[in-house]
Amino acid sequence: MAIATTTNNIAGVVEPAGARPRRMFAPSTIILYSILTVAALYYLLPLYVMVVTSLKDMTEIRMGNIFAPPVQITFEPWVKAWSQACTGLDCSGISVGFWKSVKITIPSVIISVAIASVNGYGLSYWRFKGSEVFFTILLFGAFIPYQVMLYPLVIIMRELGIFSTIWAVVLVHTIFGMPINTLLFRNYFASLPPELFKAARVDGAGFWQVFFRIMLPMSLPIFVVSMIIQITGIWNDFLFGVIFAGNQNFPMTVQLNNIVNAVQGVKEYNVNMAATLLTGAVPLIVYFVSGRLFVRGIAAGAVKG
Amino acid sequence: MAHAGRPFGLLRNLNAKVAAIPMMLTVIVIFIGCTLWTVFYSFTSSRLLPTSDFVGFDQYSRLFGNSRWNQSLLNLATYGVCVLTFVFIIGFVLAVLIDQKIRFENTFRTIFLYPFALSFIVTGLVWQWILDPGLGVPKVLNDLGLPGGSLALLGDKNTVIYALVIAGLWQGTGLVMVLMLAGLRGIDSEIWKAARVDGIPAWRTYLFIIIPMMRGVFVTTLVIVASGIVRVYDLVVAMTQGGPGFASEVPAKYVYSFMFERANLGQGLAASTVMLVTVFIILVPWALAEFRQKRS
């Protein structure tokens, strides 16, 4: 796509079906790119400020302004953020929260994507009486504010004996990830040629055989999209972590907030920004690596959800 | 239940039903059960623990008699109106600009959308730092001798909510842009040719032809963004902790505080029920419209 556009421009746009020919430096083109560039700078500014601040020492931060590049680059704030930043009396760094987030995210993503894929498959090929009703309520449930279900969920987790453990958070993420991911899988499976399913049925394959032998091998793209949505969503979660994980298992977002908004002590802005970047790193990497799939995922999930 | 007398009907598709158990449990226990539980106990005098001592609408009248709650509703309304207005304008304009067959389309789109990948906690902390009255943008303005040196958005109870709007917009416009772009790309190019043949200028085509055609995208975006606004919580916690005073308090934070910090469960449940009603007011017209579309 990008290549095609470039060649078009270089060729001076000769194809008659295309847009009105535009000169490279026409006033409208210059205005267009100026606006886009200014907007892009605005969106990039916070990232720049974070990076720059995290590479300065405190005296430089107090002296200069937040947009000035570091005079002397230091990686000490990063080291400190990772292994020595304090939440209250505990000074073992943001790495504690990082590993808790990893421990929460991995099972949450695996379980929720597994359940959503089977749900979506069932809803596409094995509808039973009432299944569409369940699905409709499930989709509407995605819009109910979490606050409405929080307290009863706490009671349920207590009764299950998993409150204040990682498994409570995993269960909550699985529940609230179900609507959008089930929708994604349902729409994907519905777009596959139905002959595949029919042929497998004629050959005598059952519910699980069709799923594992026919559908799974064909659905890698949608698995990736669904995993992107879940990894970024779960990693970025704050509310469920605060309530269900318990002090010992706070995910990275909660620990980051506790470090930066700690009441006592001198505010170390450079360490705080390094910790913030470390927390944002995982979803950012997922975003940059997955590119179009991320866009596809949120567009597909949002437009119909 | 109608099929209870026919075991065959219940056992038909048994594997599919077993596979759907997590979904059915979620719908029945969580989405329906927990919601009803909350509404039910919002009419009790529950404090530390839920009790079945019914007090009618007492919790609600106390709620709306509480200035902290009323402030949080006012804040949500201000935040919501500002964010919705600007997120739509900026998101749509960016989508239109990107849709002009530009070079580096991918780069621009990537830059506009990346904040959406970041959490509200990260967003809030960055903007807290940028708007820091002593070292952030106000200091920069001061150093340059520009007005606004005393600009302390976060410290002033009249302006703090707009600081949250700035951060919320930074995080959320990318999503709206992507949705709008998808909507623009979904419009038949014949429309554009016809408009051009008729000599209609581009801005009029957008305003009077394209936007009405994108009604569906607009409504869906509105529902998604609005239901996200109602539950805004992390951003406030990270950026202002609701302060100064309760000047940036929001309903979701009020609920959390009364449920888990102040052992005043009834208040928290009543407040969350009001949030639920708000979302229903947003959702019901949309659901009706969708339903009508499907029938016709």
Automatic annotation (TrEMBL), chain A:
<dbReference type="GO" id="GO:0055085">
    <property type="term" value="P:transmembrane transport"/>
</dbReference>
<feature type="transmembrane region" description="Helical">
    <location>
        <begin position="133"/>
        <end position="154"/>
    </location>
</feature>
<protein>
    <submittedName>
        <fullName>ABC transporter permease protein</fullName>
    </submittedName>
</protein>
<keyword id="KW-0812">Transmembrane</keyword>
<feature type="transmembrane region" description="Helical">
    <location>
        <begin position="166"/>
        <end position="189"/>
    </location>
</feature>
<keyword id="KW-0472">Membrane</keyword>
<dbReference type="Pfam" id="PF00528">
    <property type="entry name" value="BPD_transp_1"/>
</dbReference>
<feature type="domain" description="ABC transmembrane type-1">
    <location>
        <begin position="98"/>
        <end position="290"/>
    </location>
</feature>
<dbReference type="GO" id="GO:0005886">
    <property type="term" value="C:plasma membrane"/>
</dbReference>
<keyword id="KW-1133">Transmembrane helix</keyword>
<feature type="transmembrane region" description="Helical">
    <location>
        <begin position="273"/>
        <end position="295"/>
    </location>
</feature>
<feature type="transmembrane region" description="Helical">
    <location>
        <begin position="30"/>
        <end position="51"/>
    </location>
</feature>
<dbReference type="InterPro" id="IPR000515">
    <property type="entry name" value="MetI-like"/>
</dbReference>
<feature type="transmembrane region" description="Helical">
    <location>
        <begin position="210"/>
        <end position="235"/>
    </location>
</feature>
<keyword id="KW-0813">Transport</keyword>
<feature type="transmembrane region" description="Helical">
    <location>
        <begin position="104"/>
        <end position="126"/>
    </location>
</feature>
<dbReference type="InterPro" id="IPR035906">
    <property type="entry name" value="MetI-like_sf"/>
</dbReference>
<comment type="similarity">
    <text>Belongs to the binding-protein-dependent transport system permease family.</text>
</comment>
Automatic annotation (TrEMBL), chain B:
<keyword id="KW-0812">Transmembrane</keyword>
<feature type="domain" description="ABC transmembrane type-1">
    <location>
        <begin position="73"/>
        <end position="286"/>
    </location>
</feature>
<feature type="transmembrane region" description="Helical">
    <location>
        <begin position="110"/>
        <end position="130"/>
    </location>
</feature>
<dbReference type="InterPro" id="IPR051393">
    <property type="entry name" value="ABC_transporter_permease"/>
</dbReference>
<protein>
    <submittedName>
        <fullName>Carbohydrate ABC transporter membrane protein 1 (CUT1 family)</fullName>
    </submittedName>
</protein>
<dbReference type="GO" id="GO:0055085">
    <property type="term" value="P:transmembrane transport"/>
</dbReference>
<dbReference type="Pfam" id="PF00528">
    <property type="entry name" value="BPD_transp_1"/>
</dbReference>
<feature type="transmembrane region" description="Helical">
    <location>
        <begin position="160"/>
        <end position="184"/>
    </location>
</feature>
<dbReference type="InterPro" id="IPR035906">
    <property type="entry name" value="MetI-like_sf"/>
</dbReference>
<dbReference type="GO" id="GO:0005886">
    <property type="term" value="C:plasma membrane"/>
</dbReference>
<comment type="similarity">
    <text>Belongs to the binding-protein-dependent transport system permease family.</text>
</comment>
<feature type="transmembrane region" description="Helical">
    <location>
        <begin position="205"/>
        <end position="230"/>
    </location>
</feature>
<dbReference type="InterPro" id="IPR000515">
    <property type="entry name" value="MetI-like"/>
</dbReference>
<keyword id="KW-1133">Transmembrane helix</keyword>
<feature type="transmembrane region" description="Helical">
    <location>
        <begin position="269"/>
        <end position="289"/>
    </location>
</feature>
<feature type="transmembrane region" description="Helical">
    <location>
        <begin position="76"/>
        <end position="98"/>
    </location>
</feature>
<feature type="transmembrane region" description="Helical">
    <location>
        <begin position="21"/>
        <end position="43"/>
    </location>
</feature>
<keyword id="KW-0813">Transport</keyword>
<keyword id="KW-0472">Membrane</keyword>
<keyword id="KW-1003">Cell membrane</keyword>
